[in-house]
């Protein structure tokens, strides 16, 4: 256990089940910087830096030294022979010119094609990168971080990773000046949240399938409800009642208290100490999240419209609490009854219920957060909220993640 985790863990240990074994999770956090000045391919160093970040976002690997030299040579309209001669002089490269052309170059153009969205080759790379750079005023900065959590084993092949969300105070809702802010996100109010654990990812189809075969608590569950199939894709086409049943079965199986997050817990966890529209900053990009990239937010740029879910964590970046996919991919269900605004909302992070009915007796609308792969970017903001019928389960983009409570149990 690291010294950092040990210190943090001691704060909460008295409230935590002894069966939970803490672990340190390493992850990457991303922040978007908006550059108002136009980028030109004539500034090769700046373009190569941006392109290198885009390659990393796509492949989780930066361009090698040889690949960078091939690209720089292509931008200078050099022949492969000239590029090869330069590399031989300045780098330890023992392969043939044909290997450089067909293996190194071929793979490079393939990756750039995926990033730029048009077929790239050595002849057109300069013009296509110039067009790409001109439409891309965003720079993605990455840094390494660590957070504490635990792994809930389900079976030999399936586990649930839970991140410790430290308690704290935050301002919930959006300020009136935030772009696309809505009345339902106001008034802003201060909320103090107790520590809890939250799923690192939305619940996956593999996790759902395992829990769905456990003994019934209140209702039957379809073991394979999702439209966009994939063991590591988020489960979707589930209702609020289905999600509550999932939590009940998981609690019974593990002996721990699992539930849906309250709306305040969800926003606090999503923001992870930030006050901007997204935990990425003032805008969002499809290089970091799965939403409808045909639309933009603020100074953002158009991107990819995938039209379907992606595997959880596939963008390789989390927020400061180590949570992935908090903007887009699937909507995430919360416990609360729906309210049109925050007038009279609790300030202790608890779910806002209009009655003391048991969960399965509730008939009011519930709350969803996060936006989805089918959403415009403004819908994916940290503060955005929408209501949903608790019975509705037809949406191919509605999922959830789970809380494991610390120090208090919702009954």
Briefly characterize the structure:
One of its GO terms (molecular function) is formylglycine-generating oxidase activity. This protein is α+β, with helices and mostly antiparallel strands and about 400 residues long.
Description:
This protein has helices spanning 3-12, 44-59, 65-75, 80-90, 97-116, 125-134, 205-212, 240-254, 263-271, and strands spanning 23-34, 138-153, 159-165, 168-172, 189-193, 196-199, 258-259, 331-337, 366-369, 386-388, 398-399, 403-405. The chain has 411 residues and is α+β, with helices and mostly antiparallel strands. It folds into 2 domains: 3-29 and 146-405, paralog of FGE (formylglycine-generating enzyme) (Alpha-Beta Complex); 37-136. A 6-stranded antiparallel β-sheet has the order 1-2-3-6-12-7, sandwiched between helices. A 4-stranded mixed β-sheet has the order 10-9-8-11, covered by helices on one side. The radius of gyration is 24 Å and the shape is elongated. The two termini are 33 Å apart. The model is unreliable at 1-6 and 38-42 (pLDDT under 50). This is SUMF1/EgtB/PvdO family nonheme iron enzyme. Residues 45-131 form the vWA-MoxR associated protein N-terminal HTH domain.
């Amino acid at each position: 256990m690291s010294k950092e985790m040990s210190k943090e863990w001691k704060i909460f240990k008295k409230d935590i089940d002894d069966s939970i074994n803490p672990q340190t999770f390493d992850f990457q956090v991303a922040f978007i910087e908006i550059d108002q000045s136009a980028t030109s391919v004539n500034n090769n160093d700046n373009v190569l830096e941006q392109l290198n970040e885009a390659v990393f976002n796509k492949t989780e690997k930066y361009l090698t030294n040889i690949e960078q030299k091939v690209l720089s040579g292509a931008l200078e309209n050099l022949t492969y022979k000239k590029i090869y001669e330069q590399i031989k002089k300045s780098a330890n490269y023992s392969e043939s010119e044909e290997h450089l052309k067909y293996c190194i170059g071929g793979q490079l153009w393939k990756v750039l094609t995926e990033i730029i969205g048009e077929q790239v080759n050595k002849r057109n790379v300069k013009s296509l990168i110039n067009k790409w750079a001109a439409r891309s005023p965003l720079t993605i900065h990455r840094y390494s971080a660590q957070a504490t959590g635990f792994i809930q084993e389900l079976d030999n092949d399936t586990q649930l990773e839970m991140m410790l969300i430290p308690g704290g105070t935050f301002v919930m809702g959006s300020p009136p000046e935030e772009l696309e802010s809505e009345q339902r996100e106001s008034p802003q109010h201060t909320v103090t949240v107790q520590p809890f654990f939250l799923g690192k990812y939305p619940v996956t189809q593999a996790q759902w399938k395992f829990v769905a075969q456990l003994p019934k608590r209140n209702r039957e569950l379809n073991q394979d409800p999702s439209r966009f199939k994939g063991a590591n894709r988020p489960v979707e086409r589930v209702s609020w009642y289905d999600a509550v049943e999932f939590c009940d079965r998981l609690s019974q199986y593990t002996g721990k208290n699992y539930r849906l997050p309250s709306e305040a817990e969800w926003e606090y966890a999503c923001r992870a100490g930030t006050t901007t529209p997204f935990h990425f900053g003032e805008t969002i990009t499809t290089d970091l999240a799965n939403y409808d990239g045909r639309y933009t937010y603020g100074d953002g740029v158009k991107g990819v419209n995938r039209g379907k879910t992606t595997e959880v964590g596939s963008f390789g970046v989390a927020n400061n609490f180590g949570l992935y996919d908090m903007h887009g991919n699937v909507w995430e269900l919360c416990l609360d009854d729906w309210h049109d605004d925050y007038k009279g909302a609790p300030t202790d992070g608890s779910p806002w219920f209009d009655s003391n009915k048991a969960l399965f007796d509730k008939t009011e609308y519930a709350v969803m957060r996060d936006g989805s792969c089918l959403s415009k970017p403004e819908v994916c903001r940290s503060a955005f909220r929408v209501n949903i019928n608790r019975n509705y389960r037809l949406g191919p983009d509605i999922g959830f993640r789970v809380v494991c409570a610390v120090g208090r149990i919702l009954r």
